[in-house]
Amino acid sequence: MKIVTIVGARPQFIKAATISHAVREADQVEEILVHTGQHYDENMSQLFFDELGVPTPDYNLGIGSASHGEQTGRMLESIEKVLVEEGPDWVIVHGDTNSTLAGALAAAKLSASVAHVEAGLRSFNRRMPEEVNRVLTDHVSDLLFVPTQDAVQNLRREGIGSSKIAEVGDVMYDAVLHYSEKAENTKNVLEKLNLEKKAYVLATVHRAENTDDPGRLTAIFEALMQVAEEIDVVLPLHPRTEKVLRRQSLFKQTDARLCLTDPVGYLSMMLLERHARLVVTDSGGVQKEAYFHRVPCVTIRDETEWVELVEHGWNVITPPTSSNSIRTSIIDRLGTTGDEVDLYGDGTAASQIVDNLVHHH
Q: Quick one: angle between helices 266-274 and 171-184, nearest 10?
């Protein structure tokens, strides 16, 4: 059986790594890895493949950044050529990026079977490009691998039959279990940044709804600078966020008051998350990773697709409308905890996915 896996952004490299390990343990399953080039910076791409032990992609399409329409269109064209050449039994797409949608559409139009990993999530905000990507991908896919019961219910409400849905847990949890020991034994990012365990806040800001809105971006960074007067704030800086901060003349004061660092690899990020006192983020994946390490989280968005984290007290949604509301939310969350529950399976999602694909072949 031949699988083509489409990836393009850092969270997808992590998800794909867990499935690639499971594929290598399976009998007579071949995987072709296609990197669209959506994240093309070496710190945001090659480093991940090296750390995670994922083979070099068989295809690197080199698409790079562009508007949503242009980027998705170019990916669609390039992925189609790969699928025609490879003739896979299954095409796996992950998550909710433009690479996800392009891979699913290219496969569906060629009548190739599509499997969507991390299916069924909904923020119910169609202004988010990610929401459009995940809804469309779910509806053209043949097998939907979902992480939670909430995701199952979302798909059923949209009329998708149970025969297409498999609740397997979350491959990101597989990854945390698989790479934890390696992360602790790796070059210590805490020492490099002179950080004490449980004595800093870890922040990430990259989502377009925040970086492209001057009011929201200013509120977020003013709040983080205020928090930094009481506790260190570490922020691995996404290239797009840095560009906007410089454009808005916010970079110098931010750099002076926060501990800014270049994007870090997966293992270093895992260490930063695990030993933080609190995580502040607009990332979907980082919300979950904070929970995996049992660290409280403040999500600076209007909503989240990971509603169970809010319901069980691990996450608080704080719309970035004012610096004061964000600062208050962060300070109030320091030292808190959520319910002791297991929300995302037992760490065997990747092997369940491969077993399902073999069974449906």
A: 90
